[in-house]
Amino acid sequence: EGSGKFSKADRKNYFVISIFIVIAFVAVADILDKDGKAARTGSPGEFDCTGCHTSFPVNSGPGSITISSPNLTNWQYVPGQVYQIDVTVAQTGVGLFGFGFEALRTSNNSNGGSFTITNSAQTSLKSATVSGTPRTNVVHKLNGGLSANSHTFSFNWTAPATNVGNIRFYTAGNAANNNNDSLNDYIYKTNQLVTPFPVGVSKI
User: How confident is the model at residue 20 (pLDDT cuts 50, 70, 90)?
Assistant: First the structure.
């Protein structure tokens, strides 16, 4: 006693506690990682969600992912206008869904417009740098897509303040089996071209 040295029993207990802390840290990190990731939409220079969810090829399952909007008529934008965007991921028998979404200029794959979160319980904004260019993503939050057979994630997109040419929406979604790992989940992706509203044409 008083030597400052650990006994054999102390060293064993220290080792067991250390292992427990590491396991707990990994478990918490895994839980936190269930939020969506940026730069996983399948846009130029990016992977899609199959980078982690590797069981099936993209778009090989019985489900789907779609982009729609109640006020973006004919997929034509007016500079500075705000549009509601809806991304629906669907697959019968599935109870948890996730997604990521980007809006990129076709001229240089930089951000085309900006996003506003309208349901903070289900979605959030994340950013990533791809080929030296920052990209903003709307992604799901932990359990934000918890529903049966399909889930629609909604948010607002504000078109660029000026006409920047064509913009393409990219999205990838996950139809997950909710078993707390990345196996046996189906991944879907799609994209949608958005063009400037023709100059000199009255918008009704």
Answer: very low
